[in-house]
Specification:
Strand content: 15-25%
Oligomer: single chain
CATH topology of the largest domain: D-Maltodextrin-Binding Protein, domain 2
Number of domains: 2
CATH architecture of the largest domain: 3-Layer(aba) Sandwich
Distance between the termini: 30 Å
Structural class: alpha+beta
């Protein structure tokens, strides 16, 4: 196997254009594939707060007029659109972004969807931070799945089994990963993050949540990211 790390939106594109066979693909990206197969019992999901997918702003949600869309994640942007329409009942202006937008563009009635390390970067810097996974659970009572391991073709069963075993090894080695990475995240309890904020098993409740999300997203206009 050749491993090709990339940001979520590009992983989806690689699978779409047959540049990869298996990818940790944002759930929103599944809609772009002519066919797909979920090849693992693991995912990137959350039950309640996820910490690293958020809408941040200087004003409360009811005063937000513009939402900047983090170009690195279609699923998170699409989740925000679903919540805005069905849960928050808000009409806003949606704007694309580029690198480092979170350092200068979030002000006044302009909020932003942020994912990953960007959320750690702005922690405590904005008076309003809405955890999008937590908002989804409030709305549906279900967990949220951000990304799944999927293929664009059928994978031999023996490879699929070995792949899942490799993922299981990783999930069971979180403490070792924390030891290797904790110096890169000063001030962040990444052990708690991996243990409590991220939920890796792709169980029945997460599959229900994913199904509901895709059904609601299907009714929305496409999300275009630069």
């Amino acid at each position: 196997m050749d491993l090709s790390p990339d940001i979520p939106s590009k992983v989806a594109a690689k699978l779409t254009y047959n540049q990869a066979d298996i990818g940790l693909i944002p759930v929103a990206g599944l809609r772009d594939l002519d066919e797909y197969y979920i090849v693992s019992n693991y995912c990137i999901g959350s039950v309640g707060k996820v910490k690293t997918v958020a809408l941040v702003s200087e004003v409360p949600l009811e005063e937000v007029e513009v939402i900047l869309m983090d170009y690195q994640s279609r699923s998170s942007v699409l989740l925000t659109k679903v919540l805005a329409r069905y849960f928050w009942k808000k009409n806003v202006i949606w704007e694309n972004t580029c690198a480092d937008f979170h350092k200068k563009s979030i002000k006044g009635t302009t909020a932003a969807v942020l994912i990953g390390d960007r959320v750690f970067d702005v922690d405590g810097k904005f008076p309003y931070c809405y955890d999008l996974s937590e908002e989804w659970q409030k709305y549906t009572g279900l967990p949220f799945v951000f990304a799944v391991w999927a293929s664009n073709k059928k994978i031999p069963k023996e490879i699929e089994t070995e792949f899942d075993q490799a993922l299981e090894l990783g999930v069971n080695s979180i403490s070792e990963i924390v030891r290797q990475e904790e110096l890169n995240y000063p001030g962040v309890d990444i052990q708690y993050y991996f243990d409590k904020n991220i939920s890796f098993p792709l169980d029945d409740e997460k599959r229900k949540g994913m199904k509901k999300f895709l059904e609601l997203a299907q009714k929305l206009e496409p999300v275009e990211l630069t």
